[in-house]
Structure formats: C-alpha cells, structure tokens
Amino acid sequence: MEAVLLGMVLMLSIFLGFELISKVPATLHTPLMSGANAISGITIVGALISAGNDLGTMSTILGALAVAFATINVVGGYLVTNRMLSMFKKKGSGQRGGKA
Amino acid sequence: MSIELINVVYIVAAALFVFGLKQLGSPATAVRGNLLSSVGMLIAVVATLFNAEILTFSWIIGAVIIGSIVGYVAAVKIEMTSMPEMVALFNGSGGIASLFVGWAALYNFDNTLFTYVTIVISVVIGGLTFTGSILAWGKLSEVMPSRAIVFGAQRIFNGALLLALIVCSVLFCLDPSATSPYLYAIIILACVFGVMAVLPIGGADMPVVISLLNSYSGLAACAAGFAIHNNILIVAGSMVGAAGIILTNIMCKAMNRSLSNVLFSGFGAVKQATRVEGEVKPINAEDAALILEAAQSVTFVPGYGMAVAQAQHVVRELGELLEDNGAEVTYAIHPVAGRMPGHMNVLLAEASVPYDQLVEMDDINPRIDKIDVAVVIGANDVVNPAANDDENSPIYGMPIINVNQARTVFVLKRSMASGFSGVDNPLFFGENTRMLFGDAKESLSTVLNELK
Questions:
Q1: How many angstroms separate the CA atoms of B218 and B220, rounded?
Q2: Catalytic residue among B175, B205, B363, B381
Q3: ipTM of the predicted structure?
C-alpha cells in the first residue's frame, strides 16, 4: 500500500514540476537549471540518516560519502544560482556599466 | 522530534521548493525564489538531524564541513564563462550522492522486493548521472575533445551493456544482499553506461545533455526516496526531474531534432554538408565603426565564441556607446546558443546588460529586416541560413535567427573554418555580409576605440 501512496506522490509532483517550469523565459534557463539542480541535492536527507544510524561501518561510510557529495551539490548549487541571479538587472535599476 | 513532526516539516520544505521554483520563473522574483528554496532545504536538513535513527554525528559533521567548503569555494571562484562545466559537476555530485544513499539503504532491515527494485534504480541512475556528468565536464572544459566520438560497434556495445545491466539487476533482486557480486556489477555497468551515453554527443548538443543530466540527478534522488521511504526526496526529486525534461524538450525543439536523434546519432561526427562556394567580403575595424556609427538599430547575436573570447564586457561597452549615439540596441539570443540553456543570457548579465534588452529568436525574426546592422559574435550554426533552404544540410529545419535578412551583417570570426557541427555557412558569402576576422574581443575593442 505504501508503494501506491508514494507512487501517487510521485505522479502529482511530476505534474507540478511540469506546470511550474513550462513558462519560464529563456533568459532564466541557466539559473533555473542550477537552482533545480540544488534542489536535487535533497538526497542529503537520506544521506544524513545513513551516515548517522549506526548500522555498520560500511553503511556509515557510504552515508558519509553521500552527505559530502550532496552538500557540495546543495551549497554550491544555491550559491552559484544566487550569484548568477544577482547579476540580472532591469534597465535603469542599479548603476549602468559595472566592471569591465 | 517524532517522525510525524519531521514529516510535517518536510511538507513545509516541499511547499517552499514549489514557491521557490515558481518564483525562479520571473527575473524580478528569481533571487527570492532561490532563497526560499534554500530555506526549504535548510529546514529539511535540520529536521532530519532530529530523527531518532541518527545516533552518531561525528561522520555527519565531518562530511558536511568538507562538502560545504568544496561547494562554497567552487561556487564563488568559478568564472561565469565556465558555468556549464560547473553545473555539470554539481549534477554529478548529486548523482553519486543518490547512488550512495541507495547503496547504504541495503543495510536497512525491513527491505521489501519493491525497495530493492528502487535501490537498483537509484544506483543505476545515480551512477550514470555521475559518470555522464564527469564526461560532460571533460568535454565542456576541453580536457578531452568536445566533438562527438563514435566508433563502429557502438550501438551493439551499448545494447549489450544495457542488456547486461538489466540481467544483473534482475539477478540482484532475486537474491538481494549488500555484498552481492551483482551489486558491484550494476554499479560498474551503470558508470560505464554514463560514459558511453555522453561519448557520441558533440559539444554543440551540450545544452540538451546538461538539461537531461539535470533531470536524471532529480530522478536519482526520487528513486533514492523510494528506497528509503522518504516523501520529500520523492517530491523534490521528481519536480527536478520534470523540470529537466521540459528544458531538454525546449532545447531539442530549438534544434528541430528529436531527443533520440541528439542522443544516438553522433551528430557532428559525420560531415555530409553541401559545400558552399563563394567569396567572402572582409571588412576592417575602421570601416565597421563607420557603418555602426550611422546605424539606427543594431542587434548583437552572440554564440559560444563570445564566451571563449571573453568578449561580453566589450560587447556591452560597445552597445552602450551605440545607444548614446542614438541607435536602438538589442541582443538576440538563440535558445541553444552556447553550451547550456540560457548560457549567453548569463554572460551578458554578468557584463551588466539589462535583461530587457535581451530578445528571443521569435521576437527578433519578424522585425530583423528593419535592423541596420546585425553583429554576429562567435555564433555559427544558429545563424546559418542553410537551415532554412538547403535540404541537404544536417541542420536543415532548425529554427535560426535570420540575420541574413538584416540590412548589413558583420560576422566576427577567428578565421574561415566551418562551425562547431562541421557545417558550412552560406551566410559568410552573403551579399550583405562583411567578415571581421580576428579575436572577437580585440576586434570589438578596436571598433570601440574608433567610435570613441
């Protein structure tokens, strides 16, 4: 039964994802991609449990590796997205020019 | 914290991801959207740390510190021109994290057959996302040749690989254990498969690959969510998966090719373009400056070459100067210009070009015949008129920016070589085309100095 419920969640989330993304302007494709990529680092939640649940050395090591990689994904992904987005400016807002 | 309470926090996190993605869809709200989504991630992580299953924290703390430092340094140091490589690497690390999560889930006690199947899926997708992304990074950063690499028995080899992967997966699920030899076989095969999948894809098709790998990294997280019965992984992972698929689809449409054609055809490795003969008309920077000075409307059409030459800042300076001179200046951007979706937009934003000056292909094409000067900077295939009228051209049918219809076209080009996909470009021989040979950045600087 649980599998069915999770499957339901999966289906609804996929539709939600399609709805959310389908109208994004081309200008934002890169930040959107890297922002979404950062969200895929959510696997860190599973990694944390594996790294801390004391089910044997192997499980802990795998978990710790997963935590490290997922953290790179999350921290790097959000920071780089923020860095890109803060460069997008509308005409007239902020100073013209910038570093050449 | 009880497991129920943690799940309530996960619902909040999921809502923040949804709002965050929604707000990423408009330039005015995008920064806030990204912030919301990162807050969602933070509270999901913090809530998880209160999970009663977590007994020791030493490994977690160590891993989080290492990951944060690497992620922070990478994100802060990276040049904007190298962004595609960076996104590929982040994708890869997300993929391998999901592989490890799936693998570690084998050590849980109450696994059912369904769980084992999802573990295999997360390991396979995670593994191929990892190696595929590493290879994409290699091609993008030119550590290895970025052209499509094809060899004779590639399809047979890949077919055999896929078959072996399926057989091993079935055998593993029949007798699952954390030390099963089939597990190691699956991991190795998945990793090899990732390499083989990206190998036949050329540099110009990278926007498709990057968005597809982005989708895979979400799907890997989603599969890992099934493996450990965690809702938030499924919700967030599948939203990312869907988002990646949409971007992939947009990229494919922009090249008028099907996804399977991009993935399997080894496009660019075979050169079958009709040769175009003609005489190019070179122009020097001084004359180009004179023409630009007289122009009422100028549109810049950037391509990957602008990124390579790091010319975006000079382009912006030139644009501002022409605006002060009374011309209407726009930047026309093809959806697949560059090496990832929206690559050119990011570079121009870095150079402080306001985003309302960036126009999409469909907006510029209807009025391109009223543009006085179109300046093509390091773009080739996306302005190749052969896509419109030469049925023998490999890119026939791909929508392009019709710069050949502008009153005058300047093409900035290093030398006379065919474009990335190895296709000849009749634009260079056009009646109204003038070639400005040399490094794009230097040429533009000279033009700029002439105008000052």
A1: 5
A2: B381
A3: 0.91
